[in-house]
Each structure stands twice: as structure tokens, then as C-alpha cells.
RNA sequence: GGAUGCUUAGCUCAGUUGGUUAGAGCACCUGCUUCACACGCAGGGGGUCACUGGUUCGAGUCCAGUAGCGUCCA
């Protein structure tokens, strides 16, 4: 067997196991009716993406769930893939092409798409390799891409189906227009940002009464040429006589526009009058509709003022146009005032430019299954963790708006709609759209393609990823579904994602899942997942969101190089409390690495301590235990092992990942390494106790490695092999079944090992004694002294306990001897209370004075505490109302305190 | 404006149905190259639990309000 090196070197270990696991096909999920499946679909990262800290957290958690499920004997399947990310990818490739002085429009649609595919084949999906470096145990052979031909077919067939069901329609409506990407966006893709702008007060002169003006306030004077009316509230007395009159538009081609009355007007804002510009504002558009007003669009798609804006503004970019418009209004005297104004401006999520409300033809989806989608979350068929996100989800569904699913892009699923040649797309009526002679909608396309023109638009990316949980399993193709094991792996179990895409993705997947499963199937079979775990957002140390532009996001690959994948995983999980945002601090990752090293060295110590015996199975290790010869430490460490096993089980069942990590860390470092391994050093010197002690170490290490494996897969697999727990060709990650605490106890019982759970009390007393004596030695500058002569005052019973543990204590206390003594009144000696025992120590005169002061202080503190407890017990209300257990606790506490107080008094008097 | 989360040690955070003297990691101080580990060991200091009021025998924990920070929605 290879010996274990002095420190853990992650790089080689990770590379080696990555390769071995892949070669042995350890990640594959296969249909196996003898096992219960456990499925996770990865939230597909953008194909343009690179690994961020958010991905590290999210995917580590998924890998923990998947690896744990495997260890529990379930058929785990984690399906990976990438999202074609319409706008993002198209933007990246366009940028690349621009460097070569190539414009997408010059290239043409087909050639451009070829370029995108080339880019994707060459550079796309790097993130999947990065996930492999992190140790993600995805079933890589199942990797999916939302633009794969088969997946695309699923997307388009859903479009056709929903169209046929009447859920999809085409309409000319106000959309969020991105003037940079030249496409419509859904409401969810618009980010509201506070902006500092100017509010312009502009006056419009009455046509029939020159010299009389009505003023309005606007942030967008450049759209004045698009004004078609001024609106006031019908009950506003200030304007009662104005309604129906005409005013002159103060900018752009000269025009006279009416003053109209509309109840939607806010009388409190500005002068109570609103300029109505239906082409450039959603509210104005609605007012325009109510009053049959035209919409004058003064902007081009790219956000440049057009000829309708008038010769002075035409050709100007919208923000320059705004400035110019203000100047022109000033010159003509129409600008009354200009003041700073804070408001919220919608930005395009992708292009990060202000969006423009714009009237365009788009495809819209009336969401299916809205009520059912509410019910499954409300009724707990799907459980959100933390639960509070359910409220956010339900609120969105309550106020749901139709989804604009068309995008004016090339990269994406081209909408399977064909228009009869020669038809004016912009002039189609609802009847036209329903007429198969004029509009053809199908997967296959028309049989006479030359007579038709296909829709240019593609679908919103989310209109493909909302099918992810089942389209990745071959749906709707029966043969592909059978091959992928759809019937076995669907529905999936857990979704791990960020709350930022609860609307984009989670809600839509639930609706799609419900829509595309048989309505008569049990509801548990129709939802796409049962549990949704929402991670927190990783922020930098200052609490800012990590972003490329701020450059405040560490590169996870650098962190892997520095701390190891396991260190990174362990560290990030340890700082990821349930559902709270996370402030990233690199020292926590360093802590993860240090823990790896600790684990490594504890195993190294085991290897150096004695020959390896049969570790090949739990039964084999347990058979080596010599139960009847266990001392208190043996009982206690196994007791703690069982408790830790239970704590981890429970934490994982509740998605409390950081609690699981904390339980393992505390157990292994403090209970095992700092205490049990230290007491082992004496036990290993005795032939009588050596073998059983080594067996206990083997047992603890075995169980700890299994419990830790989901969190730190590489180092645990390596140590598993090095310590002989698994034979060549077998893997901890694939071939091992983790035991829960009751299985461990059964195994112990089978081999005649009966744990004494009371031993923990004795051990905690020994720990207190040890710690007190060490503190005493440290106080006296004897911390490193190896040959202290210690005298302990103890009753016969107490001494009997100490005697059993003398060898261990001597070693840990640096004592040449520990003997029993009695305190006699003598100014040069005193005792220190060490839990149940007292340490007698010799003092010189000066130290005696200090000791007296110390004891006096302690006595006073005790007296104060006693008074408090006594007062509590003296309170009749407390005695009559508190539960018996609490009452007993208080009484016992008082008795203990009094005993301690008396003891301190005795020591004081002994000091003279 | 509505919703929601947070405020506990110098920092980042735990603290499960209310119950002894509120915990961890890091940082800090002291000592130690002890035959697994200095990526370590031992010892130590450090907290009016944001504020105000209420409920209760008892509040970090429950309720109401206030302030500050954050997020989502409009």
C-alpha cells in the first residue's frame, strides 16, 4: 500500500480520480427497477458562460445531493447541458465578427448561423469542462443543448401545440424594445434602475385662445413630436373648460392636438395634465386606444429620431435628441422650467441600455396551467426551500401577464409559422391569422414551401428552457424517451437554482410540466420536481453583487489551483447558510483546504500507527472491535460518531448544507483529532488496547470519509483507497452504501459491542480536568514541561476513574506522575478545582496572594450567580408555572453552585 | 407605494417548538518545531444579541412599532 505523504496535494489526486471515474463510467445513471431513482437536471448555464462563484455554489450543492443519493443506494442521475442563450450568444458572435469587419446583415441569416455554430463548437460549453474540474458527477454522456435538433423539435412542437390550443397569438402591442439588440424583450428581462434625469415643464398654447397655455411635465421632450393629445382628469375643475379644445404641439412638424379627459390621469402630478404619446409609453398607448388616437412613432428601431420628429431632430440618437429638443423648446419659449428628477428607468438585462417602449407585432403566449401551478406550490406538492419564496412565486402568478415569446434575433428556434407569399405581415387581422390559407403553423412546414415565407422571429430562450426537465429526456419522441429512461427518471427530484430566476424559469417549468403530462396522472407525477432549493447570491466582501464589470469575482479555477476543488467546495458550502446571501471571504476557502489537510494527516497518522488490518467492509472492521475492553473514550467517540451521522442525515434531508458541514468539521477536528487521536497515542503503546483502538480509528475514518464524500469527493476517494476500505476497481462514489446510525448500531450489536452512552459524561469530566491543568501550567509558564509532578485530591470513587485513565492523562498533561493527595492547611499549597477533581499545587508566598485574590473573585461571582438562581426559585410564579424539568434544572444548578461555592471557601481557608 | 429578508464578538455568520453562564470559523494575544498535521497544538481575551414598548415566571428567540442596510414587485 502506498504511504500517505506529509501534506495533501490536491492537483494530482483530482486529475487521477476524474479520469478513473470517467473511465469506469461511474457517473452514468441507468434505468434500474431494483433501485429508486434520484434525478437532478442542471440549470443549463449559457453556452457562452464561464464558471463563476455562483455556479460553484449551485453545482456543488447539486453534486452533494447526487453523490449522497448514490451512497444511499439510489440510482442517481444528474443531467448536464447548456442553454443557447439567444441574445447573449448572438451578441458574442457578432462582436467577434465585427473584429473581422464583418456585419451580420451582410453575411445573411444562414451564413451567420453557421458562424454561431462554429463558435459554439469551438468555444462554447467551456463551463462544462470547468464543472468537471470541480468534481461535478454529471452523466456527461447525456449532455444536452437547447439547440440540438431533437431538443429543438420539442420546443417547436410545443409552439405548434399551444398555437392550436389557442394559447399563442400574434398581436401589435407595446413591448420592451432593446435598441441595442434590436429585439423585443419580456417584462422579466427588463431591469429597473434608478436614474438621475431632468423633468421638463413644457407649455402648449391654445389654438383658439393664443396666450393661454396648458403645461405638462415630461422627462422625454424628444417625444413631443409624437404627442397626439393632452389628457386631463375629467373631474379636474382647473381644466373643465379646456376639454375638447386644441393646443399647438410645441415641437416637430406643426400640429394641433386635442385636450382629452381620461380618468387615469393623476391630478397630483405636475399640473395635472399629461402629454399623450401612444407610440412611446405604455400608459399613453392605453389612453390612445381608449380615445382612438393614432400612434406617431418618432423613433427608429435603433432609437434614432426619424423624420416624424421634424427636420431639426431627425437623425439624432435619442439622448442627443432629448438635449436638442430641450434647447429648441427653450428657444421657442415653450420650456417653462427644467428641474432634476429621480426616476426608475428600465434597462435591457443583456445589453444594459435603456429599453424603449415600442409598438410592434409580436407573438404572445397566454400561460397554460396557471391555477394548477399555484396549487402545486400552495399545497406542498412542490416544496420551496426556504419556504418564503413560495409567496414571491404565488404573487407573480396572481399578476401574470401574457408572455412575449418572439425575439427579433437569428440565433434561436425560428418560429414555425409561414405566411402566404405576398401577404402584408403588418396588416394581418385576427381572422387572417386563423386562416390556414394565409398563415401556416406546423412542425413540418407547408408542403409547398415556395408559396410561403417563414416567420423571421425566433423564440425567447426561456421558451425552450422551460421544457428542460422533460425535453432532456427525449420528450415528446416515444423512442427517445424510452432510450433516455423518461418513465424512470421523470419527474426529477430536486431543482437547485437562484431565486433570481424564479419567474424566468422555475414558474414556467412548473407550468410546462403540468401542461405536458397526462391530466389524469397523479399530481406527484406531473410536476417537474418535488423540491426546489434556492441558493443565496454570492457577494463580495463589501456586499456587492459579483460582476464582470466590477472585476470583483475571483476565478474559481484559480481557487481550485490554490485550495483544491475539495477545499473550495467545502469552504463555499460552509459559508452558504440556507437562502441567505453570502459574503465571499477567501479565508473560508482556505479553511476548507486546511480541513482537507487535517483529514489527510489524521489518515496518515492511522497508517503510521500500525499495520492495516481487514478494512474491506463495515462488518470486517466492526469484527475487530473488542467491546468489553472499551474505555470511556472508546464509547464516547463511537457515540459521537453516531450522533454526527444522524446530524448529517438530518441536515441534508432539510437542505441545511452548512449545518452538515459544520457537524462533520466539529466532530472530526475536535472530538476525533484533538481528543480521541491524542488519547489513542497512549492506548496504542499497550498491546492490550492497540488493536481495538486501531479498529475504532478505522471505523471512525471509514464512516467520516463516507459522510464527507459528497462534500469533498476527491480526497475522500483517495483516502478510501489508501486505507484499504475499497478494493482496486471499486469506488467510494459508486460502490459503497453509507450506513445510518441505526445500521451502525445493529452492526455493533451483531458483534457484541454495546455502547455505553454514559461514558460521554466521564469523558467530558476528563476533558475538563485536562483543560484546567493545561491552563494552570500555561499560567505558570510550564506549558511545555513534560515531567510535571501532579497531585490530585479525589475521593476513592473519583480516583478509581482517574486511575483507569492515568496513562492517557500523563501523556496529554506532560506529567511524569499523577498521584493522589490530600489538602492540608498549609499556606504554601493550594488546590484548583478541575471539574470533579482538585489539583493540589505548591505555591510560593507571592503566588499565594495572587491565588487568594483569584479565588475571592471566583467566590464573589458564584455568590452573585447563587443569589440570582435562588431568587428565581424563590419566585412563587416561577415555581408554580415553570415545567418540572426546568425547575429541576434550576434546583440542581443551585445545588451545584452552592457546592462549588463551599469548595472555593474551603480552598480559601486552606490558603490561610 | 407593496412585499420580503437582514441587524448577535474586530470580521463573516450559527443559534431548531421561549428555559442554566449566547456559540463557530477567521482575526487578535501568550506559549510550543511534542515522534499525523505550523495547512498545526495548547492556553487566553473579546458580545448592553439595532432601538423602544409589550406578552410571559422567564425573551437573542414571540408580538407591535422605530431606525438602518439589502432584494423583489409596481
The largest pleated sheet is described as: 7 strands, mixed
Outline the low-pLDDT stretches: none
Which secondary-structure class do the elements indicate?
Answer: alpha/beta
> In percent, how helical is the residue content?
40-55%
Question: How many DSSP helices?
Answer: 33
Mean pLDDT: 86
Keyword list:
912 residues; alpha/beta; seven-stranded mixed sheet; four-stranded antiparallel sheet; RNA-binding
Produce a short descriptive summary.
By secondary structure, this protein is an alpha/beta fold.
Would you write up a description of this structure?
- With 912 residues, this protein is an alpha/beta fold.
- 46% of the residues lie in helices and 16% in strands.
- Strands 7, 8, 9, 10, 11, 12 and 13 form a seven-stranded mixed beta sheet that branches. Strands 6-5-14-16 form a four-stranded antiparallel beta sheet. A four-stranded mixed beta sheet has the order 27-26-29-28.
- Strand 7 (190-206) and strand 8 form a beta hairpin.
- It is elongated.
- It binds one RNA strand of 74 nucleotides through helix 11, strand 25, helix 20, helix 23 and helix 28.
Topology of helices and strands:
Elements: H1 10-23, E1 37-41, H2 53-71, E2 75-79, E3 81-82, H3 86-99, H4 104-107, H5 109-123, H6 126-134, E4 144-145, H7 149-164, E5 168-178, E6 183-185, E7 190-206, E8 213-218, E9 229-232, E10 246-248, E11 256-261, E12 273-276, H8 282-290, H9 318-332, E13 335-348, E14 356-365, H10 370-378, E15 383-385, H11 389-398, E16 403-404, E17 406-407, E18 417-420, H12 430-434, E19 439-441, E20 452-454, E21 458-459, H13 462-465, H14 468-471, H15 478-484, H16 486-489, E22 494-497, H17 502-515, H18 523-526, E23 531-534, E24 538-539, H19 556-574, E25 582-583, H20 586-609, H21 618-623, H22 632-653, H23 657-683, H24 687-708, H25 713-722, H26 732-735, H27 741-750, H28 759-779, E26 788-793, H29 796-804, H30 806-813, E27 815-820, E28 829-834, E29 837-842, H31 845-874, H32 876-881, H33 884-911
Parallel strand pairs: 1-2, 3-4, 9-11, 15-23, 22-23, 24-25, 26-27
Antiparallel strand pairs: 5-6, 5-14, 7-8, 7-10, 7-13, 9-12, 10-11, 14-16, 17-21, 18-19, 18-20, 26-29, 28-29
Helix pairs in contact: 1-25, 2-19, 10-11, 19-20, 20-23, 22-23, 22-24, 22-27, 22-28, 23-24, 23-30, 24-25, 31-33
The protein binds one RNA strand of 74 nucleotides through helix 11, strand 25, helix 20, helix 23 and helix 28.
Amino acid at each position: 500500500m502506498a504511504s500517505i505523504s506529509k501534506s495533501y496535494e490536491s492537483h494530482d489526486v483530482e486529475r487521477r480520480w476524474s479520469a478513473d471515474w470517467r473511465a469506469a463510467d461511474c457517473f452514468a445513471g441507468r434505468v434500474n427497477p431494483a433501485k429508486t431513482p434520484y434525478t437532478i437536471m442542471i440549470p443549463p448555464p449559457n453556452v457562452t458562460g464561464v464558471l463563476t462563484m455562483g455556479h460553484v455554489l449551485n453545482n456543488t450543492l447539486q453534486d452533494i445531493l447526487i453523490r449522497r443519493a448514490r451512497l444511499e443506494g439510489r440510482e442517481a442521475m444528474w443531467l448536464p447541458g447548456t442553454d443557447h442563450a439567444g441574445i447573449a450568444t448572438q451578441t458574442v458572435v457578432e462582436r467577434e465578427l465585427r473584429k473581422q469587419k464583418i456585419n451580420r446583415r451582410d453575411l445573411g441569416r444562414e451564413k451567420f448561423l453557421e458562424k454561431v455554430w462554429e463558435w459554439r463548437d469551438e468555444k462554447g460549453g467551456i463551463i462544462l469542462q470547468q464543472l468537471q474540474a470541480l468534481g461535478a458527477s454529471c452523466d456527461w454522456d447525456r449532455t444536452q443543448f437547447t439547440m440540438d435538433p431533437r431538443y429543438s423539435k420539442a420546443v417547436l412542437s410545443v409552439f405548434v401545440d399551444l398555437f392550436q390550443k389557442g394559447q399563442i397569438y400574434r398581436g401589435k402591442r407595446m413591448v420592451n424594445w432593446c435598441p441595442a439588440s434590436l429585439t423585443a424583450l419580456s417584462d422579466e428581462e427588463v431591469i429597473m434602475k434608478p436614474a438621475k434625469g431632468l423633468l421638463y415643464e413644457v407649455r402648449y398654447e391654445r389654438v383658439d385662445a393664443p396666450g393661454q397655455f396648458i403645461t405638462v411635465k415630461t422627462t422625454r421632450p424628444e417625444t413631443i413630436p409624437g404627442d397626439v393629445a393632452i389628457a386631463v382628469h375629467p373631474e379636474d375643475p382647473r381644466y373643465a373648460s379646456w376639454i375638447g379644445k386644441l393646443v399647438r404641439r410645441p415641437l416637430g412638424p406643426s400640429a394641433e392636438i386635442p385636450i382629452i379627459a381620461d380618468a387615469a390621469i393623476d391630478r397630483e402630478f405636475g399640473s395635472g395634465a399629461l402629454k399623450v404619446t401612444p407610440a412611446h409609453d405604455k400608459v399613453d398607448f392605453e389612453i390612445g386606444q381608449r380615445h382612438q388616437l393614432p400612434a406617431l412613432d418618432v423613433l427608429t428601431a435603433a432609437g434614432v429620431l426619424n423624420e416624424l420628429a421634424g427636420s431639426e431632430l431627425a437623425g439624432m440618437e435619442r439622448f442627443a435628441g432629448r438635449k436638442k429638443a430641450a434647447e429648441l423648446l427653450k428657444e421657442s419659449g415653450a420650456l417653462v422650467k427644467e428641474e432634476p428628477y429621480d426616476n426608475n428607468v428600465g434597462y435591457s438585462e443583456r445589453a444594459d441600455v435603456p429599453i424603449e417602449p415600442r409598438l410592434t407585432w409580436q407573438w404572445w403566449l397566454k400561460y397554460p396551467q396557471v391555477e394548477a401551478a399555484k396549487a402545486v406550490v400552495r399545497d406542498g406538492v412542490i416544496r420551496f426551500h426556504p419556504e418564503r419564496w413560495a409567496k414571491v412565486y404565488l404573487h407573480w402568478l396572481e399578476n401574470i401577464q401574457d408572455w412575449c415569446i418572439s425575439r427579433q434575433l437569428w440565433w434561436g428556434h425560428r418560429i414555425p409559422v409561414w405566411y402566404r407569399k405576398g401577404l402584408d405581415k403588418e396588416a394581418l387581422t385576427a381572422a387572417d391569422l386563423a386562416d390556414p390559407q394565409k398563415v401556416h403553423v406546423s412542425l413540418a412546414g407547408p408542403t409547398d414551401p415556395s408559396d410561403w415565407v417563414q416567420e423571421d422571429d425566433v423564440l425567447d430562450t426561456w421558451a425552450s428552457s422551460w421544457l428542460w426537465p422533460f425535453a432532456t429526456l427525449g420528450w415528446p419522441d416515444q423512442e427517445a424517451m424510452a432510450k433516455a429512461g423518461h418513465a424512470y427518471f421523470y419527474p426529477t427530484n430536486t431543482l437547485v437554482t437562484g431565486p433570481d430566476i424564479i419567474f424566468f424559469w422555475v414558474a414556467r417549468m412548473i407550468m410546462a410540466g403540468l401542461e405536458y403530462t397526462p391530466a389524469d396522472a397523479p399530481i406527484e407525477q406531473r410536476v417537474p420536481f418535488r423540491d426546489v432549493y434556492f441558493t443565496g447570491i454570492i457577494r463580495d466582501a463589501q456586499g456587492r453583487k459579483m460582476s464582470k464589470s466590477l472585476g470583483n469575482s475571483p476565478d474559481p479555477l484559480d481557487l481550485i489551483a490554490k485550495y483544491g476543488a475539495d477545499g473550495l467546495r467545502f469552504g463555499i458550502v460552509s459559508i452558504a447558510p440556507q437562502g441567505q446571501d453570502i459574503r465571499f471571504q477567501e479565508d473560508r476557502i482556505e479553511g476548507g483546504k486546511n480541513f482537507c489537510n487535517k483529514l489527510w494527516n489524521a489518515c496518515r497518522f492511522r497508517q503510521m500507527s500500525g499495520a492495516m488490518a481487514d478494512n474491506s467492509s463495515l462488518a470486517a472492521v466492526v469484527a475487530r472491535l473488542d467491546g468489553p475492553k472499551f474505555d470511556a473514550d472508546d464509547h464516547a467517540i463511537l457515540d459521537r460518531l453516531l450522533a454526527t451521522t444522524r446530524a448529517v442525515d438530518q441536515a441534508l434531508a432539510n437542505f441545511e448544507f452548512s449545518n452538515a458541514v459544520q457537524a462533520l468539521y466539529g466532530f472530526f477536528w475536535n472530538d476525533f483529532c484533538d481528543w480521541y487521536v491524542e488519547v489513542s497515542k497512549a492506548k496504542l503503546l499497550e498491546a492490550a488496547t492497540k488493536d481495538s483502538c486501531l479498529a475504532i480509528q478505522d471505523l471512525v475514518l471509514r464512516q467520516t470519509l463516507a459522510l464527507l464524500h459528497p462534500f469533498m469527493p476527491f480526497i475522500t476517494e483517495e483516502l478510501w483507497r489508501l486505507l484499504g476500505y475499497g478494493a482496486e476497481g471499486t469506488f467510494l462514489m459508486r460502490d459503497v452504501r453509507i450506513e445510518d446510525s441505526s445500521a451502525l448500531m445493529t452492526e455493533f450489536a451483531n458483534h457484541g459491542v454495546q455502547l455505553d452512552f454514559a461514558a460521554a459524561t466521564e469523558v467530558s469530566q476528563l476533558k475538563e480536568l485536562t483543560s484546567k491543568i493545561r491552563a494552570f501550567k500555561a499560567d505558570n509558564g510550564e506549558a511545555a514541561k513534560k515531567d510535571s509532578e501532579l497531585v490530585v485530591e479525589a475521593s476513592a470513587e473519583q480516583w478509581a476513574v482517574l486511575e483507569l485513565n492515568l496513562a492517557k492523562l500523563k501523556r496529554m498533561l506532560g506529567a511524569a506522575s499523577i498521584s493522589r493527595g490530600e489538602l492540608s492547611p498549609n499556606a504554601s499549597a493550594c488546590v484548583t478545582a478541575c471539574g470533579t477533581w482538585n489539583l493540589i499545587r505548591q505555591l510560593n508566598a507571592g503566588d499565594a496572594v495572587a491565588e487568594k485574590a483569584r479565588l475571592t473573585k471566583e467566590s464573589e461571582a458564584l455568590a452573585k450567580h447563587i443569589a440570582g438562581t435562588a431568587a428565581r426559585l424563590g419566585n412563587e410564579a416561577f415555581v408554580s408555572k415553570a415545567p418540572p424539568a426546568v425547575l429541576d434544572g434550576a434546583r440542581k444548578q443551585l445545588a451545584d453552585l452552592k457546592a462549588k461555592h463551599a469548595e472555593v471557601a474551603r480552598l480559601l481557608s486552606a490558603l490561610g
